[in-house]
């Protein structure tokens, strides 16, 4: 999450939106580049992924920070990011990583989606909320975010002495 903050601080507005769509909304790269303004409802704080994984349509809650950044772009038609090529997105992310010293490995784009799941789990401790936000069809898929956070287990033993 510290890395996402570094990237956001160095990004121009369009790249900030790109980072937030994946790092907070949990969009996949194909979903982010295909997102059109007609599928974004800023007043309701939701967007619609028209063709997600498996061709499924899905509703995604847009956090207030992302609503603010989307509003700041000042456009309301066409593609939200302005390009439809995933290679362009990867190139822009890689350039941002190089400028900020954030390590870029081929899976960094998916790493942003992983950040969204980690943030959701840290805030809610609720796997169903993570699965819903990331549009996982199986609850088990969201379990990776719980495995990464052992704070509840540690907390359960505070003050316990046998």
Sequence-ordered SSE layout with sheet pairings:
Layout: H1 2-10, H2 13-23, H3 29-34, E1 40-41, E2 46-49, E3 58-61, H4 64-73, H5 86-100, H6 108-124, H7 127-134, H8 139-147, H9 151-156
Antiparallel strand pairs: 1-2, 2-3
Helix pairs in contact: 1-2, 2-4, 2-6, 6-7, 7-8
How far apart lie the N and C ends?
Answer: 37 Å
Question: What portion of residues belong to β-strands?
Answer: 5-15%
Helix amount? 55-70%
Number of strands: 3
> Could you give the order of strands across the largest sheet?
1-2-3
Radius of gyration: 17 Å
Shape descriptor reads: globular
Compute the number of helices. Answer: 9
Structural class based on helices, strands and sheet pairing = mainly alpha
- How would you spell out the order of helices and strands? HHHEEEHHHHHH
What's the pLDDT, averaged over the residues? 88
List the uncertain runs: none
Question: Mind describing the biggest β-sheet?
Answer: 3 strands, antiparallel
């Amino acid at each position: 999450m510290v890395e996402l903050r570094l990237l956001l601080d160095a990004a121009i507005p369009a790249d900030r939106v790109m980072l937030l769509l994946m790092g907070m909304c949990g969009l996949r790269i194909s979903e982010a580049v295909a997102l059109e303004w007609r599928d974004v409802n800023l007043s309701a704080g939701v967007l619609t992924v028209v063709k997600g994984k498996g061709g499924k349509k899905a509703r995604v809650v847009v956090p207030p920070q992302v609503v603010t950044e989307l509003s700041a772009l000042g456009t309301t038609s066409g593609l939200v990011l302005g390009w439809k090529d995933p290679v362009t997105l990867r190139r822009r992310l890689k350039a941002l990583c190089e400028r900020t010293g954030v390590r870029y490995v081929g899976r960094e784009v998916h790493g942003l989606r992983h950040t969204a799941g980690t943030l959701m789990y840290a805030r809610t401790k609720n796997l169903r909320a993570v699965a819903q936000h990331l549009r996982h069809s199986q609850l088990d898929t969201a379990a990776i975010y719980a495995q990464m956070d052992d704070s509840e287990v540690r907390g359960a033993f505070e003050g316990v002495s046998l």
